[in-house]
Structures are given as structure tokens and as C-alpha cells.
């Protein structure tokens, strides 16, 4: 594997899952693989889980790790040609990225949607520039439109907890005070569509995800109907995708908050969320603290998904 | 040893000191003990000595280290249940802490007294939540009421420099422009009371420390009298502890500043301070630069105290 | 080698270059040399290339690395004696520096000219205090008057690309919106003067560098005349050095911007710059993207120059 930005990069998911469980049994089995190899993690946005889990995964593989925090806006890169750079942008992307590539073997990039231009966000401007100019394998630590390390960890978790071969998985929108990127729901949909699970998406009208991510999933606007018989409930808030209201919050209806009543219509479903989660907006205390909540093992699997991805990339550069 | 928050966690101090001197002779003797083990250092407050010395100690033991800086207030954790989290707190402590625990083997936490609520400070709210919810061994890198890694380093230093079996050690308050937590003097008193040294505390009226820390120490309000015949002078400023003026500065009297006149009544005492120190507030230039000042070797012993603690915890999780 | 602050510390440059090329062939040849040795990198100014390349070099040698960011002004150290420290300076340099030295084996320091006092800048106050008080080998990661790791990387790059034994190297000033330190041009001049290259400096009147750095170089105020027949063009902006306008920008004339017309009079010269570079101020897009631009391999050689320096220091402390 060279780059990792979406589900297709991983190839056969059954093979990838097998590898994940093998690593989970012995995290240090491949500690020699990353010897004298350096991971550079670049954060354009803040991070807790992704930072710690990816660094841990790299160290499990014996890698050296360097972390670069680029505060949003603090490091303004020029991307155009012909501009007289006498303003606040002190470096051109055509110099900055290859230089960073020259000091490491693998690059991880976190760069969220900015909600300034839907086109820029959905073209993955930043991530693609790293792929194009760094000369190194690049993987997404959550980009504008996808969060594949999270989705892979979600898949691992579902495989660990599922009780039937083809569980019913429901992705439900939930309210949040701030507009959040669609990266997590897009990506989750992409990964679920790549399995043979029964997959349903539910959200208020106006919150439709991009068609390329919805793909062959069933969309059900009636949340309770969607949740009926679910084996896994995956809650997440996201901002509007459509052109008219792109990046806006147009609904804070707490009737969508996942509570005991919602869970009661499921098949004693497990509750999942990528974290951090706003309690009593996304989900009630009772549900997230209850015996069916698997948000902590789900987060713990971030170390495993990152380790499979790094292992694959390392194997590709040996 | 599971957790390390106070002197009792270390058991027999003679054994711990023996271990400290063994490590000091060869810091890399146990470099295999921490192999494939990860320390997560979490700072709610800024740090120089603690950060560097603890990280160095962990690396001496062959550990991997991850550092997380949580600016005071920047990462607001909700601690109550039932709250609708639609404000500035983006995560609940019941999710945040176990997730951090899932990516490491040992957690170090720095969280100072905030002087907002005496009860919250003296109940060690933050530190105890990590112990309760992280699922990992936790050690204090200075908490609200104690700084045990500092006190252990102080003890090691006194043992190295003492010329009599039972030296006289005097903890003296000194003025400072800002209100400082009682963690260092509390903890120092706790450790000195656990030895058979002669231990005296001196401070202006109104600066009494909590009775559980003073314990069987002699309190002497006349500073010069307290210092008479001292073998070690340990200076430190702290804010008022009593309920009425908790967390306030009510005295900036520079007559308490340790100078040559104060040192003259001692038994040619060594001068100690945990650093950073405000010169000519806490102590004069002459005294801190003089031949009896041992503040630098005292700071250097922070690496040793941290290494004993990490070694003990590692042995407990093998 | 004990300290590294200028070209003389490296001794015979031919030997140093031989070592550089040996390391470049196998970066991990000396991975055992830094075992159980710790590098502390201290940044008073922000850094991208220096931070990553130096850390990478240290890891290539098997060292442990700790990074300390000291935001300019955030950590105010008292340097005078006798001052009553009741203001905003919380620590004296006489305590802070030896303590940092006690937790590591080698110290790297970045501390730029502040343009507040020419005397302070040119006396290298900060760097020299680390040398004097830390008790450890110290190397410059760009100080007030020199950037020797950059200049060494520049020399390595010229040796790799030169087609004649004694190439003509031209250092040309170029415009920039902000006043920049003279560290890079000073240092480059110092290193070029230590070779047997033909070395010419060109800049507008008023931008003369300090005589000790210019030394026996030829200064030519006519930029086009200076560039005639050049094998290497090294562009850099710097602020005025003379007493009257020290640290100021007195010229933004874009006639000095290196463009195709300038390059046309050279001997098909290679273009060099230390980066980050302001395009169309320092150099046009065409030139920096052209086949003769070697700015990326020049930056990549920062890892090699740092590794030679660290290797030499490590050998000195074995």
C-alpha cells in the first residue's frame, strides 16, 4: 500500500481485519518492521485520540515519530504561482511539502473541512497536495471528507461485537451546537457500503450526505423506523451538505438525541460514537454509560487500525 | 506499586533510597524494563523541570513517551451527569479519561490547585478522576495538595549531603509576588515527618499549613529561632491555607527572605529550593550562589526520584 | 568537538565533508553511537526545517530527543544580579540553564537576533550563556549572528553539484517585506571564505555585512556584474547591519529579485536559498522551479550537516 485516504486503499477488508486481529493479539509482533523509519504527523487541526493512537501504533512498530502542530492559519502557505509574496504567507507549498517529505519516511496529515468552499473541501486540497508533492506515502488522520482510520476502527469493533453474520447497522444524525464536518459520517457510510451488512442512514430532511458516500445505503427520514431491529446504532452530528446551506446548522432538535426510548426499538443494539461526544445532545448519559455502549473499546481500536495502515505502508517501502 | 501520589505509596523509605542510589550509579541498568511500555504525561499546567526530568527518567528505563499539553481551560471537561452539553465543554470526563488510558501503560498527571474551591483542591478532584477512570497506574507530577516527586528528590538530596544521622531540617516560608499552591510545602512536610530528622516549620502567623501535613512537626513563628542550628534550610513561598483567606497573599515581608544573616545562625546549613526561585524575594543572590546552595543537584535528583517511581510501577505491571 | 557555533569548530572542512558523504550513504551506520544519550532542543524562535532535520539526525544516531519550545517573551529569564524578582521574570538564568543541562547530554539552542541591541545580538548573549552555564556541549540551531548547520548543509550541496574544482559562488541580497537577521548571510560568507571557491557578495549600498564576516570576499554593488559567470547563486534577504539603521529595511527594490535575466548572465548557475523563500520577492517562480534550482536537496542536506555535528559531539563525550 502506498497512500491511505479511503476504504479502497486497503483492498480486501477480510484480509485487513484478519491482520487487525493478529496485531491486537500481539501489538509488538512487528516491532522490527519500523526500525530506523520515521513517521511525521502533521496537524492542521487539534487532536487527542488520533494523535495518541497513531503515535502509539507507530511506536508499536518500532518507528521514530515527529509531531508538527500547525495552528490553523498560523502557517499560511501560498498555493498560486506568480504571486508576489509580500504579505502574510511566508512559504509556498511547492517548497514546504517536499522539504517535510525529505526528513521522514511516512507522512500523516490531519486537515479538516473549513466550510469556506465546498469545492475546496470536497477536492481535498491539502491532503492531495501532500500526496502530490511530498514524495512520501501519505495517510489521512482525518481529512476534509473522510476519516478512514476511524471508520476502520469502527469496522473492527463491529466485527468484534456482532452476533450475526450480517448485522443491521444504523447511522443516525444527532444535534450539536456547532457545525461539524461530514468526514466521519461520509467515511462510515463508505466503509459500511463496502461490507455486506444491512446499512441504514437516518437524518432530518436537508441533512442528506453527498450521493457518492450514500451510494447504495438505504436512507430513512423517520429515525424510529430506521432504528427498528438495529444491532448497532452509530450516532454522529454533521452540518448541512447541500449547496444552499453548506456547512451550516439548521436543526438542533433534541428529539434526535439517542435515548433509552430509541434504543428500546433496536435489537438490544450496541451504541457507537467516534468521540468526543456531547452528552444529552448526541446521546443520553444512560445510554452512553449503559452495558451496550462500546465507545471506549471503539476508541481503543484506533490504535489497531492505525497500526495495520502503518504496517502496510512500511511493507510497501521496504 | 500501583499509584504514586504521596509518601505512603513508596513504602519503606530506606529501601526506596537504596534503589535511588543504585539507579544514580547506573541510570541505564533497567533500560530493558520499560521496553514496549508507554508513558503518557498529561499537563494541565506548564512545566520545565518535571517535564524534562520525568521524560528523561522514562527514557532511561527504555520507555516510549507521549506528552499531552492541556492548556488550562482550553480543554473543558464536563464532570456532572444530566447536563445538556451544548456549551463550551466538548467532552465528558467519563469518556476522555478511559480513552487516554487505552493508549498507554502508565499516566503522569500535573494539575495544580486552582484556588477556586478549597474543597475541590484538597479532594484532588482531577488526579483522583484519573485514578478512578483511566484503568492505568497514575502518578502525580504535582497535584493540588502534594508534589511527591519533588519531595522524594529532596529526601535523596538531604541523604546525600547530610553530615549527621538526624539532621535538623527547617522549612521556611518566604515572600513572593503571586499566590502559590501549598503542594510543595505540604508534601515536603509529609516526607520529612516520615523520617527521623528533626523537622521545624516556620512562617508568619496566618500561613499555617493544613494540620494533616504539619502533623508532628514543630511550628515556630520566630524565623531566626527556627533556623538556629539548622543543617538544611528549605525555603518556599505559599499562599494562605485558612478558610478566610484561602489562596491569597497576605504578607510580602522581605524580612523573611533568606539572606546571609539568616544563614549565619544555622549550622553552616545547606540551602534548598524546588525552583524556579525568585531571587531577593525567596533568597538573596549571595546565598543561592554560595557554596552551601544545593539547588542544582536537588533539581538533578528529580530524574532519579521519577525513575524510582516509574521503575516500581513498571515492576507492578509486568 | 565540544561546542558547535561556527565554521572553526569543525576543523578541516575536507574531513568534515568526507564524513558527511559517508553518513549520507548510510544514515544508520552510527545508530549505536547515541544509545542512551539525550539531545535537548531549545527553541526561543519557531522552526520547521531545523526542528525536523535535527531531530531526524539525532534519531539516526540512536539518540533520545526532548524538545522545549520557549515562546519569545513567554519565559522571561532574569540575567542581572541584585534584582528583586517581584515582576514578570520568574526564574534566573543561573538556575534555569544548569538545570536544563542536568537532564540531557547535548543541548541545541535556537535564538535569533532581536534587533533591540546590536551589541547584545553580536555578543550572542543567549547562546553564550548556555555554553557558560549548562555544563553540556552546546550547538547552534541558528543564533543571532550565525546559522552554521545551514551553512554546512550549503557547503555539502555545493560540493555535490559543483562541476569545477573552484566554482564561483555569489551571495546576493534580495528584497523582503520584513527585516531579517544577518545570521544566514554572515554564516554563509564565513563558510565560503573558509573554502578556496571564488566568492562574491552583492547587495545595495547600505546593506554591508559586518567586516569580520565579509573578510576577504569580493563585494560588488552591481548585481549583474557580480553574477556574471557564477556557478552558484545564493539569494538571501537581510536587514541593515550598520549602526544607523541596524535591523531596518531600507530597500524593497524588486530589481534585485533573482529572475531569468539575472540567471542568464551566469554560467548556467545553480540557484540556492535556505528557505522559507518569498517567491517573486527573492526569486521568481520560473527560477526556483527550474532545473537549476537545488533548494530542496539543499534543505535535505540539513539532516546530514546536523548528523555530522551530533556525531562529532557524541564522540567527544564518549
UniProtKB/TrEMBL annotation, chains A, B, C:
What's the short name of a Pfam family annotated to this entry? OTCace
Classification of source organism: Bacteria, Pseudomonadati, Bacteroidota, Bacteroidia, Bacteroidales
Any idea which positions bind N(2)-succinyl-L-ornithine? 142, 176, 236, 278
All residue ranges annotated as the Aspartate/ornithine carbamoyltransferase carbamoyl-P binding domain in the record: 2-160
Q: What is its EC number?
A: 2.1.3.11
- According to its UniProt record, which protein family does this protein belong to? Belongs to the aspartate/ornithine carbamoyltransferase superfamily. SOTCase family.
Pathway info: Amino-acid biosynthesis; L-arginine biosynthesis
Assembly: Homotrimer.
Taxonomically, which superkingdom?
Bacteria
For this protein, the record's InterPro entries field holds: ArgF'-like (IPR043696), Asp/Orn_carbamoyltranf_P-bd (IPR006132), Asp/Orn_carbamoylTrfase (IPR006130), Asp/Orn_carbamoylTrfase_sf (IPR036901), Asp_carbamoyltransf_Asp/Orn-bd (IPR006131)
Sites binding carbamoyl phosphate sit at 47-50, 75, 110, 147-150, 274-275, 302
Q: Which UniProt keywords apply?
A: Amino-acid biosynthesis, Arginine biosynthesis, Transferase
Q: What's this protein's function?
A: Catalyzes the transfer of the carbamoyl group from carbamoyl phosphate to the delta-amino group of N(2)-succinyl-L-ornithine to produce N(2)-succinyl-L-citrulline. Is essential for arginine biosynthesis.
Its protein name is: N-succinylornithine carbamoyltransferase
Is Transferase tagged as a keyword? yes
Which chemical reaction does it catalyze?
Answer: N(2)-succinyl-L-ornithine + carbamoyl phosphate = N(2)-succinyl-L-citrulline + phosphate + H(+)
Q: Which residues are in the Aspartate/ornithine carbamoyltransferase Asp/Orn-binding domain?
A: 184-310
